[in-house]
What does this fold into?
Amino acid sequence: MKENLFMPNSIKTYSGVYFDYLKMDPDTIDINDIAHALSLIPRWLGHTANLYSVAQHCCWCHDYYIEIAEDERLERLMHDATEAYLGDCPSPLKKLLPGYKDLENKLSKVLAQKYGYNYPYSSATKFIDLQALHYEWEFIRLNDGEIDCWTSEKAEAEFLMRFSNLKKHIN
It folds into this structure.
C-alpha cells in the first residue's frame, strides 16, 4: 500500500513523523527533527552571502553569556525551535499573517513544557536575541559574510551537543 504523503493539517518531519498543526501533540515533536530543520533554515530567508542557519543563531544565543542558569541557557537555545515546524517567518511578514502569532505561541508553550524551559521567554533571552540580531546584521548582512558560517551538518551537531549537555545538567 502506498503511503499517504498528505495528511490534513500536517507536515511529515525529517524522522518520518506527522506533525499536526491543530493538535500539536508533544509526542510528534523530536529534538533531532528540530536540530535538523533549524540547521537547514537560513536567517533572513537566505538573503545572505553564505548560509547562516537558525541553528547557528540559536547556538550563538546559548553561548553569548555562559554565566547564567542552565535552564535559561536551554531557553536561549530553544527560543526559535518553533521555526522547525513553522519556518522562519520574518517579523514584517509575521505582522501581515493574523493567525501566525497564535500558532507560534501555542507551539512555544508545547515545546517549553516538553523540554523543560520557560515560556514566555525571559527579558534576558529577548535581549540576547536582539543582541544577536545586531551582531548578525553587522557581520553577515553589512560586511558580506565576515563570520564563520557553519555547514548545516555542523550546525545540527552543535545544536544537539548543546542540548544534550544542558539536559544532562538540568535533569
